[in-house]
Amino acid sequence: MKNCSLDQWYGTACSFTWHGNQIVYKEQLSDRETLLLVHGFPTASYDWWKIWSPLAERFSLIAPDMIGFGYSDKPKDFPYSTMKQADLILDLLREKGITEFHILAHDYGDTVAQEILARANEGQKFTVKTACLLNGGIFPEAHHPILIQKLLMSPIGFILSRMLNQQKFEKSFSKVFGADTKLDEQELELYWQLVSKADGHLIAHKIIRYMRERVENRERWVSALQDYPNKLVLINGPEDPISGKVMVERFKEIISEENIWLLEGIGHYPQVEAPVGVLEAYFEFINQ
Questions:
Q1: DSSP β-bridge partners for residue 168
Q2: Which residues pair with 127 in a beta bridge?
Q3: How far apart are CA 4 and CA 19, in angstroms?
Q4: Residue 264: is it exposed, middle or buried by C-beta count within 10 angstroms (0-12/13-18/19+)?
Q5: pTM for this structure?
Q6: What is the tens place of the pLDDT at every residue in 31-42?
Q7: Helices 82-95 and 108-121: crossing angle, nearest 10°?
Q8: Phi, psi angles (nearest 5°) of residue 223
Q9: What tens digit of pLDDT does each residue of 192-223 get?
Q10: Contact, 204 vs 169, CB < 8 A?
Q11: CB-neighbour burial class of residue 140 (10 A; exposed 0-12, middle 13-18, buried 19+)
Q12: Residue 133 near residue 233 (C-beta atoms within 8 A)
């Protein structure tokens, strides 16, 4: 599969103003049901490019770059939080007049999706028809951050953000992929461009506070999954050192043993490493 450049991906992107900041998002709207795609840390909506076209044959698509990520604004003084990111996404959907949608989320996007589900369960005026979670820290007790994440969370996180460069990023980023599905040099450079755009790497220590929020809001966000009345699925790359096999076992224990797809040999980025496998699992789930 030929790589999609950032210029190609964002050349057709849209934007809207949210609290004085420009938020970039991709959309391919139609008369089909809407699928909201929520990316993870530290990347952006670009993560979805390999599965975008096949999904667009089944859904109307919308995929924002959350604030602080990708091509959206990255203000240094913004109070970054999961709650704010959920506000942003729901405001975007409201502006589009979308009140019913499916969710496909990954990594930090899982946590944002959990907050959106919590609000739906509370009776807010929108409906999440189905939810699909890829690898992510949905249970903080089963989440194993890599060293750079731990350091960014520590009191010296702001120093590490300043020291982060392309070489250090690429070395750490490669560790979360499967042994046979790692990115090549060109792809790694592209992701660094995405992360470092507008000096986004300098606020990594602020954005990653969501890991602490997961602990603080564990009951709310786990209950959001337990109480969700519609179909929920987990698609997981078990070779992920952060949220692989242990996360799957925890999901079986407290959520469900059904609707779990394991993509053998795949790491933390299933939609990048195994797009065909993700599409097969997701379409089988959605067509049940």
A1: none
A2: 100
A3: 31
A4: exposed
A5: 0.96
A6: 999 999 999 999
A7: 70
A8: -60, -30
A9: 999 999 999 999 989 999 999 999 999 999 99
A10: no
A11: middle
A12: yes
